[in-house]
Design goal:
Length: about 130
């Protein structure tokens, strides 16, 4: 599954504002990873009480299809549930929807539809960007 390149400064701010993050690093040198190299992570934002949203489940391509993504999601979901958060949402690329369904996530529960507002790439940040139609 592809993962977009992110501006390091913006990613740093995103991680600082994350409710919970799980990192997986290689514990030894192998042909797939250096010792200590990050091979996957998942994060969620939350108000800590009512809802959480899972973002950025990412696994190094060499480790995909090894169960690592599933393990990250199991642990992240468990942590959020243990914190008493009743509603956990996520956005999923079409090819991984089946994985999330196996973990108990459902599409459009009770007819609810997820929606997103995204600024067009050619627009600059600022108040004017929100007013363009």
């Amino acid at each position: 599954v592809g993962f977009p390149r992110r501006d390091p400064d913006r990613l740093k701010v995103a991680l600082e504002n994350t409710y919970h993050v799980i990192w997986v690093r290689s514990t030894r040198q192998s042909r797939l990873a250096k010792n200590g190299q990050m091979i996957g992570f998942a994060r969620a934002t939350s108000d800590g009480v009512l809802s959480a949203t899972v973002w950025d489940v990412a696994v190094n391509p060499a480790w995909q299809r090894s169960g690592l993504g599933r393990a990250l999601m199991e642990r992240l979901t468990k942590k959020l549930v243990e914190d008493g958060i009743p509603t956990i949402t996520l956005y999923a690329e079409p090819q991984v929807v089946g994985l999330y369904e196996k973990l108990g996530y459902v599409r459009d529960p009770e007819g609810i539809r997820g929606m997103a507002f995204q600024r067009k790439k050619k627009e600059k940040a600022g108040a004017g960007a929100l007013l363009r139609v």
